[in-house]
Amino acid sequence: MATETATTDVVSTESGNWKAGVAGGLAGSAVFGLLMTYMIRAPLLEVVIPSMYGLAPPAAPFTGWVIHMAHGAVLGVGFAALVGLAPSLGGSVGRSVGAGAVYGIAVWVALAVIVMPIWLSAVGSPANPPLPNVSAMSAVGHLAYGAVLGGAYAGLSG
Predict the structure, then answer these.
(1) Beta strands in 20-112, from DSSP E residues, in sequence order
(2) Domain residues of the chain, as ranges?
(3) pLDDT tens for residues 59-80?
(4) pTM of this prediction?
């Protein structure tokens, strides 16, 4: 007479917590959007961001906010994937905030400094910045985005 014991192993194929990445990305984008609205003073949300998709001019602030928030959510999923590949990045709130800040600066360099001017030129936007598009305020905004993303991710993924 044999006795069998059934066991169940749960194996996750997910890399990082994408829901926490989306929520963190939205939180970071909201903070960055407020910085753009009240501190940068250039028509970024109203003209620059919508014109990436041919939706401005004329100024379209609501459309700019929607696109900006969507970008932030997608980039938040990218952050979650990176933390999933290197879990030590999200090991504590401090590490997650630091990793998010570094991620925000990396996003700034890759997307705002290099990709955005090329993209806006390709679509014929009247709001086309120079290449490279180096702006201290943009760097600060992206840094804030990343730090808030990292903090929110740590709080929500726990």
Answers:
(1) none
(2) 18-157
(3) 999 999 999 999 999 999 999 9
(4) 0.87
